[in-house]
Design goal:
Elements lengths: L11 H13 L4 H8 L3 H14 L18 H21 L4 H8 L1
Helix pairs in contact: 1-3, 2-3, 4-5
Length: 105
């Protein structure tokens, strides 16, 4: 019976280091793979992943973050509920302007 090899699990830092070295283009992908003990196809995949995700690193750095459209109504309803509770509390608390106005009515 043959013994199965376990898959190697690489840390994100290792993948980034190898992928960035491949992006530099100083060495070939084969040389980088041999130096780090990684298959050249894997090095190419990490290089491609870095290239594809590089633009997203700089998106949305300024201004408010966009809110998902399905979450916006929930946020608004929760804000309405919070404000209603505050208003009810102010109406009930003695000495508040709302309480005095409701007594005079």
């Amino acid at each position: 019976m043959s013994e199965r090899k376990k898959r190697k699990v690489y840390s994100p830092e290792f993948k980034a280091r190898v992928g960035l070295e491949a992006l530099k283009g100083v060495k070939t992908i084969n040389e980088i793979g041999q130096a780090y003990g990684v298959h050249p196809i894997q090095v190419g995949q990490w290089k491609k992943a870095i290239r594809e995700k590089a633009a997203s690193l700089f998106e949305g750095k300024r201004g408010p973050k966009p809110v998902a459209e399905h979450q916006q109504p929930l946020m608004l309803y929760s804000e309405i509920g919070k404000l209603k509770m505050e208003l009810d509390w102010l109406k009930k608390s003695p000495g508040s302007a709302c309480h005095e106005a409701s007594i005079l009515d």
